């Protein structure tokens, strides 16, 4: 049976590295937990690290976090849908917003629940996902800053999430200037500029973060130890907090080239034949996982001699080479993962999740 592991000691190592980095630079930070898809064992591991604030994009997950750690500050990191506002106010202490009509509804719901709800105003910096245009910020803030039971505590932005626009020192300076503009116009303090995500971390390594950027939200780099500018591991971090283990259910020596008339497979892929492979054979193993659980693009075999061939819905085929393999039926084949692959596995009810030391 295929299963996913979270390595507790590697998670702690990465957390401590990041926590020291942010403390040295006078920056507060939160852990993004949306990757964990509400898995209670994994959420408990994150909460036990000692972090004071977590961010998620699913109310279901925030409710679980509040059940585990009622005093944890929870942040809903996307603009709320209208029919979610009651639960957003109930389970999120802070929410990201870019629509004044939504914040007005949040204000009304916060009054009903007897709470003060804190708001981060999201600013568009070029990636064209959520966020108001900077030239509209003053008018936007004018509509919301006197709403009852609402406190604007931050402005923020997201980059690289949709169109791949990369962060830069200039963009972060621009974000901080928007905060200063609002403070000067309304004589109202906004404590935080949450301009940092995993993709912004390399700018911190290069000392290119403006002083006004005082809050980061980190997910991918915590779990995968990756520099998203260079797309390579950060030397001081562990890249394998998560690892996938699969079981071999067949090993057979077969032709390298399919036999028969070719057409698209059920996924719509058309196999391209390498003419050099005609007449050749290799040992092929079938593993007990498929595209229902993860795309083959997100798998990195720990054994570098293994080549991922392709997958159907429930079976993954790998090439073990032309020589008699060291594997047998029932053996485990392990993989490191890319972010989106881990996300798929964590969202799958068919994959067992384990914590290891």
From TrEMBL:
The keyword Transmembrane does not apply. Residues 7-224 form the Alanine racemase N-terminal domain. Its cofactor is pyridoxal 5'-phosphate. One of its GO terms (molecular function) is alanine racemase activity. GO terms for cellular component: cytosol. Pfam families: Ala_racemase_N. Keywords: Isomerase, Pyridoxal phosphate. This is Alanine/ornithine racemase family PLP-dependent enzyme.
